[in-house]
Amino acid sequence: MEAATTSQPILPIERRRDLFFQHFSTLWEFRKPVIQPVKISLAVLAWFVFLLGWHLLAKASFTPDALLPTPGKVLSALVELFANRGFGMDVLHSLRRIAISFGLAVAVALPLGMLMGTFPVAESFLNPLVSPFRYLPAPSFVPLLLMWLGTGDSQKIALLVLGVVWFLMTLFMDNTKAVRTEIVECSRTLGARRANVLWRVILPSALPSYLDTARQMLAVSWTYLVIAEIVAATDGIGAMMMRAKRFVRVEDILAGILIIGILGLLFDLLFRLIHRLWFRYLY
For position 263, which CATH number holds? Predict the structure, then answer.
């Protein structure tokens, strides 16, 4: 009777432990959807671990204070940049360059990608020209762009266009090829002309994929922003970071990197929202 009494409190603990491990193991099932509360909790935990690790590394005895400030110092520098040093205008200049350059890249890449994905003859002509340019680093064009376009905005926007346009063409071509052949053949059988098939069948069918491709490639455009703005620039996030480098203000440089990451994330969320609103039938 005493043995049974002493063993009873252990059973609930073992049961809770078994349930915990059982629930934990189910999270690692292949392609098992994660519920929203768990997803949010994991995201918060990831950022907490990252910031804690950064803080501990910055406070370590072997880390120079001037070369790795704590997250708190970076946040203070960010507030100072916006409040007293006109960083808001730098951000607006960078946003304008990103918007113009990416809009131009899409305007060039989308029709050419559609043509290559729809008509094999267009792919046979254009793809041998487009494919090699995907392997050329965009910064290698900086000396040429400086000689051709000078040091103004045109040079920076051209560099941002060159950084993404070739990839956009190829990806838009693949998105177009993914449209089901049966839909195209059915429309042709019903008497639709080539132009109607292109604009009323292929374009609407591939548009969700086009938007998703644009969302992903916009991230690449942001990665080229600093390169575009460190060459003979007087404004923009990259120019601020170069000024900070001269005075060894690492916290300002990290603040600029942080702002680029935040802006990129906001644009990504905006594209996701547009995708969800325009194409509700996919969700």
Answer: 1.10.3720.10
